[in-house]
Write a structure and sequence with these properties.
CATH architecture: 6 Propeller
CATH class: Mainly Beta
Helix content: under 10%
Structural class: mainly beta
Number of strands: 24
Shape: globular
Oligomer: single chain
Number of helices: 1
Low-confidence stretches: 1-23
Strand order of the largest sheet: 3-2-1-24
CATH superfamily: TolB, C-terminal domain
Mean pLDDT: 91
Strand content: 35-45%
CATH topology: Neuraminidase
Largest sheet: 4 strands, antiparallel
Radius of gyration: 18 Å
Order of helices and strands: HEEEEEEEEEEEEEEEEEEEEEEEE
Number of domains: 1
Length: 300
């Protein structure tokens, strides 16, 4: 057993259950925002693939085995041997904090600065553009975070600096706005028309039903030994559990695990704690969960 795996099992065992009762750790793809890299990590905790880039924010392993991710100045699709097969370069003075592969082969990209959602074709050209209207007083860096296009064609956008989730139809018409605590970093449209929202420095996670009623929440001190810091990326698993990235920037580097799997009754089943190789893991995809990310069959 590797030292990292042993640390995982010992740490979780102290918090939750004897190590012999714990499920195996998962292989995963992740963004390390402050570490400036995107990595694939084995179930034993070993880095098997990595690519250096500035401030990565969103990442996906595609059905063809390639990796799609965005970073400060654009987005890339790379083969496992790091050949660039698709690329989008954002305009100057623009920040990119969200991307998503779409069923038609396009990639959705959200730009802070130009304040827009774009869908970029395989030829690298913009095939669709949706304007986003934000408070002009909000600094470029704080405009938007995790954004998702749902199977019905609607867009769900984290207006980070305004503390709200906005739903738009396929043509960009605003359908509703939901105020949330803090500065939202990810919104996941779930199959039952629920929305799962991580609230950034609001130190909170909220799940809303279709009528915007709170049906589940995770609060700052709900997990013993794991206070919620800046809640960033997440992945809802088929068993109903959720993996949350606990971004440790803003003064908390090295203090606690970088992400953890949490049950509906708020028990930690697995956590990752490797401060030797990672600084601030802010997005994740478990790689042993079946599904096609371009068709919504993997819950993110």
């Amino acid at each position: 057993m590797t030292p990292v795996r042993l640390l995982l099992r010992l740490a979780v065992g102290l918090l939750v259950a004897p190590a012999s009762l714990l499920p195996a750790a998962h292989p995963f793809l992740c963004c390390d925002h402050n570490g400036g890299k995107v990595c694939v990590v084995s179930s034993e905790g070993k880095i098997e693939w990595e690519y250096a880039c500035r401030s990565p924010q969103d990442c996906w392993r595609l059905p063809n085995g390639n990796y799609l991710f965005c970073f400060a100045t654009g987005a890339l699709e790379l083969t496992p041997d790091k050949k660039v097969v698709w690329e989008y370069k954002a305009p100057e003075k623009v920040e990119v904090h969200s991307c998503q592969p779409l069923p038609n082969g396009r990639v959705m990209v959200v730009e802070c600065g130009t304040s827009r959602i774009i869908e970029v074709g395989r030829d690298g050209k913009i095939a669709k553009e949706i304007a986003l209207h934000t408070d002009p007083a909000i600094h470029t860096h704080n405009q938007f975070r995790g954004t998702r296009k749902a199977s019905n064609g609607h867009y769900f956008v984290c207006f980070k600096g305004e503390g709200k989730i906005v739903e738009l139809d396929g043509e960009g018409k605003v359908l509703r706005a939901i105020k949330v605590p803090g500065d939202p970093h990810e919104v996941l449209p779930l199959p039952d028309h629920h929305l799962l929202v991580t609230c950034g420095d609001g130190h909170k996670v909220i799940e809303f039903d279709a009528r915007e009623k709170v049906v589940w929440e995770l609060n700052e001190t709900d997990l013993p030994g794991n206070p919620l810091r800046l809640m960033a990326g997440c992945q809802r698993l088929p068993n109903g559990n959720t993996v949350f990235c606990n971004y440790l920037g803003h003064g908390h580097l090295g203090e606690q695990p970088q992400f953890f799997e949490v049950t509906r009754d708020k028990k930690v089943l697995w956590q990752f704690d490797d401060h030797a190789h990672f600084k601030t893991i802010n997005q994740i995809q478990l790689l042993d969960v079946a599904g096609d990310v371009t068709r919504g069959r993997i819950l993110r």
